[in-house]
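Sample A.
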Amino acid sequence: MINVRLTLLLLLSFSIASIAQTKNEEEAKEFFWGATDTYKNANDIPKKWNNESAVIIYKNENYDFHKFGKSVTYKASIRKRIKLLDKAAVEEFSEFSFTKRFRSNKGRYSWKAKGDNVVGIKIVKTDGSVVEVDVNEEAIEVDGETKIAIANLEVGDIIDYYFYKVEPFKSTYAFGFEPVETTLGEEYPIMDFKLFFETENDFFINFNSYNGAPELKSMPSEKKSIRRYSLEASDIGKTEYRRWFYPLVERPAFKFQVYFARSGKFEDRALAFLPEDEKTIKKSVSKEEILELYDNRFKPDGDIGDVKDFFKGKSFKNDAEKVTAAYYYMRHYYLTRFIEAFFVREADILSYPFEYYGNYPVFIQNEKQFIRHFTEFLKRQKIKYEIVVAQKRYDGSIKDLLIERNVNVLLKIKTETPIYAEFFSPHTTIDSYSSLIEGTDIYLLSASKNKIDIIENGKLPVSTFDQNETKKSINLSLNDDFSGVSISTTNSFKGYEKEDQQYERMIYSDYVSEDYKKYSTKSFTARIKNKKKKIKYKKEIDALVEKLRVKQEDRFKKSAEAEFEASDVEDYTYSIDNTGRYGMGSYFTYSEGFKAKNILLKKAGPNYIVELGKLIGGQIDLEDKERQRTENIHMAYPRCYNYEITLDIPAGYKVAGLDKFNKSVDNATGAFISTAKIEGSTLIVTTTKQYKQNYVPNSNWNLMQAFLDEAHQFTNEKILLKKQ
């Protein structure tokens, strides 16, 4: 089955018009399959690709941008002609799914603008006959989606299909279309590929090719105001999307964004790195352009009176302590104190709960607002800082920056030991930032006086594997009759390992209540003066929290059953021991316990086999095709996983097979080390798995395989409880 929304990201919010043969349908059919179609008889593929699952004979992407007065029309379309060579490919293309009709999300008053989408599908059978699918007739609605089943599709057939999207909207200001960043190749090899652009005045193009992809070339046009461009390529091998792989860094690729800016003043206001004029394709961004775009946009600004009040009567050892205190207070004052109200609104308890937070409650909604607001505080405190401009590693080097939306901005505060501050989420901590910009080259912006007018090169540090830790203590005890086990765990996470766990394992009241207490601020219901309303809303909020808790416990119980391969978990308990929200190095910790039968134990005559190795969770089992790797290894961050497993040895039994639990592979890329010992009547097994780097060249892939294989083998190890 082919899912259009997943396969063709460029055609967001795709739908199909239900009326027959509209003007757009006729236009699309003529454009792709009309008299000028040079691929209508292209059926053969090179012999070298006969063993592929499918081969794309022709791929054609088109982008059209035009305007008339306030009206703008955006067209995006794609055609693929594909030969299906095995059953997997036949299954992949046997069904198309999409959504019907859509309203534009671009420009102003977009809810009034209706877009039109057209689908065309035809099948070329092995005998040369052609079957065109009647999309309007064949489409059916299933669970809110429109689907088309392609009947009688067979190995050897060619499927030729297109998607044609016409989106009109109105815009009187600067507007950036959704960027496209993609590799030249995809999961199937491509014989011929063509990318086509058509624009006119007031449309600006940022476009560049990378890693050996062809360049965008200008095409002739009959009007001075119309501009046309194309990129063509052939004989494109397939791109396999492997584990720990950054395609845009490793494979031929291209990126582009089109920006609409109607006049000079809107060009100046556009938050984009625009080319000099509409006739110029912008391929790169200089340091000077970065400085020019951000000099005024990052000027300190914001009402920090409430932060000033918070600091009254407080003293700090140094600026680092002061900045840290300000960061966490701002996180609460501009974010977490409103979270309860958001849940109240979403649960339909009250349509506008924010009325109880004053006339003009302030939310900081993005990183650029955060920079302005936090630097206003730093300026008042006379604390020096620099603004970091970075790009995530999967997007390539900062020197290849092209699209403003890819920029990450944060603050480097020049305390005795510099600390970093980024736009906060409920669990973001001071002196941390996205792991995906660790170790990258950056630009540092600063001001000589009142204006940002200095830009310098810099580099962000990389965390170490022991700073990003998952730590688990697991106690295992067996029932007296060996019918089941009791498991209790303490699970701790720090560094980059903890934020996902915090979102997964806490509901809003766990951390909002913590902040209320820390800063002596009022909860939502405490803000309500009307006694009847206060009682009513508190009752409804308590019910909401209880409902979330019940759902949470059910989810966690199922998670434990999946992790330990148990189908009958009983007496499940769960508690949060530490939220870990006030420091990158502090642990988020929770405890969990349950009883289960028919897991980890197997009877062997008078003895019992205990599958102790399974307790470190599933480990990577490399397939044969993964072992032959030419790509470099890109991981989010260095990290480690440390386990301590204790088993209460039943009376009358002794342990055999401990030698298999003593392993050690330790090299430059990582490690897996395990030890086992007996202390009294307790067996203690410790393991550590370490990923020491966030980047490993493919020349060291064999070193990584060594510790990955050792960790996987550990999961198969067992001990024997021998009857004495």
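Sample B.
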Amino acid sequence: MKFKDAYRKTNDTIRAREALLEEIKTERVNRIRSEQEKKRKFKPWFAAIPAVAVAAAACIAIMVGIRTGSKNMNVATDEKSAEAGFSTMLGAPRDAAQDEPKANAPVAVASYDELAEIMQARQAKSGGFYYGTDEAVAEAEAPTAAEPMEAPAPMPSVTITMVNDAKGVLTTGESDRNYSGTNNQVEGVDEADIVKTDGTWIYALNESKRKVYILSADGENTEVVGTIKLKTPKENDTYWRQYNEMMLYGDRLYLLGTHSDWSDKVSDEERTFTFAETYDLGDRTEPKRIASHRQQGEYRTARLVDGMLVIVSDYRIWYWRPIDDVPVTTYCPKVATDDNVVTLLPNEIYINPDSEENGFTVLTTVDAADGTEYDSHKAVLGGCNSVYCSGRDLLIASNEYRSERSDEQTADDGRHFVKIVSGTDTNLFRFTIDNGEIEATASTKLPGTLLNQFSMDAYNGYYRVVVTQNENEEIIWTDGIDQYEWNSSSDCALYVLDSWLNPVGEINNLAKDERVQSVRFMGDVAYFVTFRQVDPLFSADLSDPYHPTILSTLKIPGFSAYLHPFGEGKLLGIGFDADEEHGWTENVKLSMFDISDPSDVKEAFKLSVEDANYTSVQYNHKILFVDVASQTVAFPADNRYYVFRAEGDSFREIGKIDLGGEYWFGDGRGLFVDDAFYVIGTNAAIVLSFETMEELASIKLK
């Protein structure tokens, strides 16, 4: 009886809290709608003047090849990409007046008390408890005496080049060399990686050696000129520091990763945090750390947008004891620079009304030319699995499991059963970035899961996503000893969303019992691959966002795990061969697709790499080197680094380099500076002729 009373009391508490939260949310959304409606109704004719002026200025900027205020933006190479870049950066839909805020539009937390109510309600619903302490945040890391704070370096000059026929793109820095950069998803938005170059120097983050190597990019005379020793725990230390990636901007290098500490002396809020160490590269032989930033949660990713470093972390709250007695500021997201710890204010924390997650996604911006302090910091109550950034827009996607259990039912034969239907949905949250300031704009929930960041795209003010939809059904026969039946199904879908992330167009029920393997959006056309036994490559026409249609379906053995534009009318696929009868994957495979007619896509030619069975390109696009001008494709596979060239109607292997022997770890990177091609591995950096792939030098990384 006591158990039942406690159960009813808990349920009553949950209902009361959920009703309160729903009332708060509805009232605030209605107020936002009312204010927006007033703005629409009262719009004098002269209000349009600033918008017209901005549009005219932007058009002029595109015509002359540079956008005002851009610190790291490549010039579009044709009218179509210029139009796409313009509309994407502005982020305005074609018919914005028709967009209406969703009832579940994101709103900032009104107070710490409201955040506490939300967290308590979610804890009660999950049936768990909070695991944490009331201790203050642990002492922050300050630069050591040997690494004094110094004045920021002046803003680096910007070099912008056309990329129609060049082998690479110059971004920031004063080098006049031609060089390649990271394989980024969006032109002009740099992504963090373990190898970077500015055309003069090469920077290689080597986690296994616990160093960052700085090499002179000097062809056969290349050498290591400086190193940065990574912080490494000693025998009795209770922490681990994982250096994941780097970002480079002029004379600033940012080392990014996750710090974990399991000591009893450390508060749970400081057990796991994302760090960004800022180094001054004024002297490449002796880089100096000038600041250390921290934000709670595990490191997810970073982007460089118009001179702003954007860092995303995933901060999970674990429930092991009642959260009611814990001060809300204890688990409220925090950020810190050196010894200056800041707890986010309520108006910096957004509620994702679609999510039941009890953790936060934390977003920060840092002026990349300075690097000594945060410009902006925000958080949203919800998780983070994939991140897409178009420049102005940042989409955060997280997976959320759902399960619905029916009451006991009676079958036609008189037997009794309970049905459990489950699946995974995607919570999508949109932020905008304007001069370093981060603001939440919209949120939604879609059935299914995203493969990765390439499953998302922004174009002409609309947002497009491709998902795999799963539906699981479990039937429990409850007469006597329980008996179970399990059925599952999957298919794929494409959604087009407006600026409030309202779905306006969709294609459903594609590729039954298959999963999405790769996606690439190219303007008005989307290409995506699904797989079970053969590889259907779909092309979809998105020119009318409200009525997307499938144009073509190409079925071939195997599948492409990554798709990359390869010049006019061509699409490169990298994946695996497969047995047509069973769908068993075999060798690594390169495919060149002819997409000159999107309604009739063909596989022009292919190459099965017989001595390569695996490549991590499918999980990390940044390990891939692609240079369309020279028709070169390179990536690590198994224990080697392969270099191919597309010649006529075939791929030709022109290089195969063994860098790490049996200890490869799949972390090799390739890049070029002028006529030299550099392959950076765990144990060595190899310099080759970019034309012939003849080895010019080998530098051991000790």
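B remarks: The helical segments are 2-41, 48-64, 79-90, 112-126, 328-331. The first strand starts at residue 107 and ends at 108.
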